[in-house]
C-alpha cells in the first residue's frame, strides 16, 4: 500500500509541471495586463510597475524564476493585492471556503445518507418515492435558482436568516444549504442504489436467515459495501465543495476562494491565477488519491489488486 | 499604542458588535444606530489603504475617514476649509504656498504630526521604485516630475520643504489654483514615518504597514479591524485634533464585491444605514415607493464615446462631429440610464470650479446629414460599417444598442457592436483597435484641466489618436496663467476646439446615487461625492 501511495505521489510531479507550464504561457496570451485600467497611468509608472514585479524580464526568464521559487514553496506576490503574498491570500480565502464547504458537506451527508437508507429499506413505497423525487428536484435545481429562492423565502418574506455577508453566524446558514442540497440529492440517489444492490446479495440473505434485525443488517453488513459509490463520488465532490462554489459565493457575498479564482483571471493577476490553479490541481489530485485509498479499504478485492 | 490598550479597546468595541450578533436582519441597522455605529455598504473592498497606492474612488471613501490632508473640503459647497493646516499664505505669483500646521495635530498613536511628515510622505509617493500609480498628482510641485522619473536623485531639489515643525513651504511648477482643493485627494495625505520605516515601506509596495494592528493615521477615525471582503471597522480617533466635532463612534465599511443587487437587498432588509449605489432597475421602484431613502446628485464625471481618428471614416473631423450630433443624449438618460443623469453636449461637467463650457455639440440630425454630405457621404451613402466597442456591462450594452439604433436611423449606416471583457477592452483602446468605443472620465480634483489634459498630444488617456498643436498650446498657456479669468478664457477656447474637432462624442454627466436611512443626518450631497464623516450623526428611532 505504501509503495502504491508513493508511486501515485510521484505522478503528481509531471502533472503539476505540465499544468504550471501550460497555464503560465496561456494566461499571458490573453490581451490586457494586470496594470491596464480604465485610466491610463503615465508611461514612467507603467515601466516602474513592470520593473517592480519583474514583468519586464523576458518571458522565459520569468517562467524560470517562477518555477524555481514555486519549487521552494514561494508562489510570489499578488499583483493586485499588494499587502498579501499569494500563499497568504489563498490561505485566507480557503479558510472561508473550507468552513462553508464543511457545513455543506455535513448537511449533504446527513440528509443524503438518511434519505438513501430510508429509500433502500422500503423500496417502491412512499418512503422511497418521496425522498427520491425530492432528490431529483434537488439535482435539477441549480444553485443560481435555489439561492435566490431561499433568499426570497427566508430573509425577504419571513424576516429570518441573512441574505448576504459572512459577518454574523446567521449569514452562514443559507449559503451552506444552497451549496449542500445538490450534493445531498446525489448522495441520496447513490446510497440508495448502492445499498439496494448489496441488500440483494447472498450474504445479506444469510444474515436475514440467521434472524438478524433489519437495522443491524443495514448498519453492520450492508452499509460498508453500499456506500462505495458514495465514497467514489465524494472525492471530487468534496474537492468541489471545499474550494467553494463561485455561484454560491457570488449570490451570498461570501469571501471564498471560488470567487477569487474568477477575479484573479479577470484582473490578469498572473501570480494569483497560477497560485489558485496550482492549489486546485493539488486538491483534486490529493482527494482522488484519498478516495482510492478509502475505496480499497472498503473493498478487500481492490486492496489485493493494488498490492 | 501599547498592545494591552489595543486589546482592551478591541474588547470594548467587540461588545458593540456582539450586541448586533443576535439581531435579525431587519433590526441590525436600528440596533447599530442605538450603539452609535454607522453601517456603510461600500461597493467593493479596498485593494489597499496605503494612500500612495490607492487608485479607486471606493478606496477614497474609506480613506477620508482615516486620514486628513493639509486642507479639507466643506461637503456643503466644496469650499476649502482648514485641515491639518490651520492657515496658509499664497505668494503674488501663485507659485509659492506656505502652510501653517496646527500645533495640536496628532497621529492616532499620539505622536505629534509635523511638516516633515508631509515631506516624508511626498518623497515616498514620488520615489520611482515605489511605482505609485497616482504620483503624477504631485507633479505640480516644482521638480517633482523629474524626481519621480529618476532624473533627479536628491529630494532637496524638489520644491517642498519644512521650514520648521509647523510650517510647510511648497513651490509650484505652475500656478495651480486647485492645489488647495487637491489636498483632499489621498495622494497628498501624510504618512507616519516611523511606521513606514518599521516595515521598510519607503520603496516597497507589498508590506503589512496598513494592517489594522500596524497602521497609524491622522483622521477622525482609526482602523481597528479589516477582514478582507467582510468588514473594515473604524473607531473614533481620540487623538484627532477636532475629535470633539466627531459624533459617530464607529463606522463599519461592508463591501459587496461590486454586486449592486445584493447591496440594495441588504439595505432594504435593514442591514445598512448607507449604500453607495443601487441597480438601475431599482431606481424607479425607490422613486415611487421610498423617495425619502434615495438620493441622486450630480457627480464630477463624463460618459462619452471615443472616435479612432486614425481609422477611416473618422479621420475626417466633419464625420466625427456628424456622428456626435446624431446621438440623442436626452433620450439615453430618460429611457436607458434613468438615474437622473444630465445629457452631455461637451466634456467638462458644468460649473466645474466655476467654469461652464459655451461651445457644445448640438443634437441635430439634419445638420449632421449635411456635414456628412460635405464630407462626401450624402445621407450616409457609402459609409463603411462602424465598429463600436464597449466593455461588458448591462448598462454599456443598452447604451451601445441605442446609439447603434440612432446611427442607423440617421445615416442608414451599419453599426457592428463589439463587446469585450474589461482588460481586453483596455488593451484594444490602447492599441487603437476600434472604430468608436465607450469611455468615461471621473475628475480627480475640481478643475477643468483635469478633464481637458486627457486629450493633449501623446497623453496616456488620449487614446483617440487625435492631436492638435493649438489645443496643446492653449492648455500650456492656461497652466502658466495665474489669473482665473484668463485661464477660463483659454479653457473655453481649448474645449471649443475639442468639440469642433470632436475626437469624442459626449453622452451624459454622471450622477451619484446613495441609499440613506433616515437615522443618518448631516449628510450633504456634492459633485465630488465627498463625505466628511465628522459631520454625520445618527439619530436612532427615526423611521
Q: How would you explain this protein's 3D organization?
A:
The complex is a heterodimer of chains A (307) and B (543). Chain A has helices at residues 2-29, 43-52, 59-71, 86-121, 126-140, 143-158, 173-199, 202-209, 214-226, 228-242, 246-251, 257-267, 270-298, 300-306. Chain A starts with a helix and ends with a helix. Chain A is built from 14 helices and no strands. Chain A is mostly helical. The mean pLDDT of chain A is 87. Chain B is an alpha+beta fold and 543 residues long. Chain B is built from 17 helices and 19 strands. In chain B, helix 10 (317-325) runs antiparallel to helix 12 (365-374) and helix 16 packs antiparallel against helix 17. The longest helix of chain B has 19 residues, at 3-21. Chain B starts with a helix and ends in a 5-residue tail after the last strand. Chains A and B meet through helix 2, helix 6 and helix 12 of A and helix 8, helix 14 and strand 16 of B.
How would you briefly describe this protein structure?
The complex is a heterodimer of chains A (about 300) and B (about 550). Chain A has about 300 residues and is mainly alpha-helical.
How many helices of chain A does DSSP assign?
Answer: 14
User: Tally of extended strands of chain B?
Assistant: 19
Mean pLDDT of chain B: 91
Would you identify the regions of chain A where 5 or more consecutive residues have pLDDT less than 50? none
Based on secondary structure, the structural category of chain B is alpha+beta
- The parts of chain B where pLDDT drops under 50 for at least 5 residues are 1-12
* Largest beta-sheet details of chain B: 11 strands, mixed
